[in-house]
From TrEMBL, chain A:
Similarity comment: Belongs to the CcmC/CycZ/HelC family.
Subcellular location: Membrane
Lineage of producing organism: Archaea, Methanobacteriati, Methanobacteriota, Stenosarchaea group, Halobacteria
Occurrences of domain Cytochrome c assembly protein (ranges): 29-187
GO terms (BP aspect): cytochrome complex assembly
Annotated source species: Haloarcula vallismortis ATCC 29715
Membrane topology: Multi-pass membrane protein
Name of this protein: Heme exporter protein C
Superkingdom of origin organism: Archaea
Automatic annotation (TrEMBL), chain B:
Transmembrane segments annotated in the record for this chain: 6-23
Keywords, ordered alphabetically: Membrane, Transmembrane, Transmembrane helix
Top-rank lineage group of the source organism: Archaea
Annotated source species: Haloarcula vallismortis ATCC 29715
Protein name: CcmD family protein
Length: 254, 40
């Protein structure tokens, strides 16, 4: 059994079971409350040598950016799997994840802008490579959602959208690596960089990332389930219409 | 509390609640389609 058929026979049912599970809903609620409790109760509001309450936005700003990166990676994988197998589930997963990912990217930009207004005294900095590449991601995925919504049931447009989803993903690792590839104005690389001391409270950050990943999972699970139900309803309506036509006028229904 | 901190977190929660509302609208539309199908 190759990897693709294993994904079809085992992966899809496992993902459906995960999306149906009510544990996700309760875990999301629990992690959300715990995250907010830790951010406002124990997290340090001193970062990069600046002490200000606005630094507390960083915990959800980083969590949102992480969840957005995961969401867009899932979109990429969903698009690739749809192109390889043409199974509608992968297309639903790719689009749902792209939709939630777009929401997360938007909120990352909003929270970053609010943070920057206090710390940098500027809502936006065109000179910062991370900000600009993240805005490019926002435009790329806005385009993805627009093309998808314009496609309707057209199989060829679904394939074109999937190719776009794969090519557009290049911007995600590019944005992550941008602060290492080019000279950043404000966003300095923090992971593995001994010169930067972010002094972030790690447990609060991990809880926030977990909460936002669970929110992402809950939203995507709900959206995929909705898309699958809608597809079944559309098939049932089409079958009913065909039956009515086959029976002839005046004989359909009771 | 820093007013912009409140603005930032409020914007996040508002957007998340709006997305839940959007999902609920989709559920309502689907329920209507199912009941139409059952009534036919």
């Amino acid at each position: 059994m190759n990897v693709l058929s294993r994904l079809e026979t085992r992966g899809i049912p496992s993902l459906r079971a995960l999306f149906r599970s009510s544990i996700i809903k309760y875990l999301t609620l629990l992690a959300g409350v715990a995250s907010l409790g830790s951010v406002f109760g124990m997290a340090s509001d001193s970062m990069y040598g600046v002490s200000n309450q606005i630094n507390l936005i960083a915990y959800w700003h980083i969590g949102l950016a992480t969840a957005a990166a995961v969401a867009l990676t899932v979109t990429f994988l969903g698009c690739a799997l749809y192109l390889a197998t043409e199974t509608p589930f992968w297309e639903f997963l790719a689009h749902s994840s792209g939709e939630v990912g777009f929401l997360m990217v938007t909120l990352t930009l909003v929270t970053g802008s609010v943070w920057g207004k206090v710390i940098w005294n500027s809502w936006w900095e065109w000179t910062d490579i991370r900000l600009v590449t993240f805005l490019v991601i926002w435009f790329i995925y806005a385009g993805y959602l627009l093309i998808y919504s314009a496609g309707g049931d057209s199989a060829s447009l679904k394939r074109i959208t999937s190719v776009y989803g794969i090519v557009g993903f290049v911007t995600v690792p590019l944005s992550y690596l941008s602060t290492r590839l080019w000279t950043p104005t404000f966003h300095r690389p923090t992971t593995g960089n001994p010169d930067t001391d972010a002094t972030i409270t790690v447990p609060a950050l991990l809880l926030s990332i977990a909460a936002l990943l669970l929110i992402y999972l809950y939203f995507v699970g709900s959206r995929v389930q909705l898309r699958e139900l809608k597809r079944r309803v559309n098939y049932a309506r089409r079958d009913r219409t065909l039956d009515d036509h086959a029976m002839g006028p005046g004989q359909g229904g009771e | 509390m820093e007013p912009l901190l409140l603005v930032g977190y409020s914007a996040v929660f508002l957007a998340l609640i709006m997305y839940v509302g959007y999902l609920r609208n989709q559920v309502t539309a689907l329920e209507e389609q199912v009941s139409e199908l059952v009534d036919q």
